[in-house]
Amino acid sequence: MLVKDQMTPDPIYGHPDMPVVECQKVMQDNNIRHLPILDQEGKLVGLITQRSLMSAVPSDVSQFSPFVVNYILAKLQAHNIMVRDLVTIDPEATIEKAARIMADRKIGCLPVMEGDKLIGIISDNDLFNIMVDLLGARREGMRVTVLQPDRAGEVARLTHAIANKGGYLSVFVTYPTSDPKIWSSVFKVTNIPDDVLVETVSKLPDISIQDIRRVTME
Question: Would you give the DSSP letter of residue 90?
Answer without folding.
Answer: -
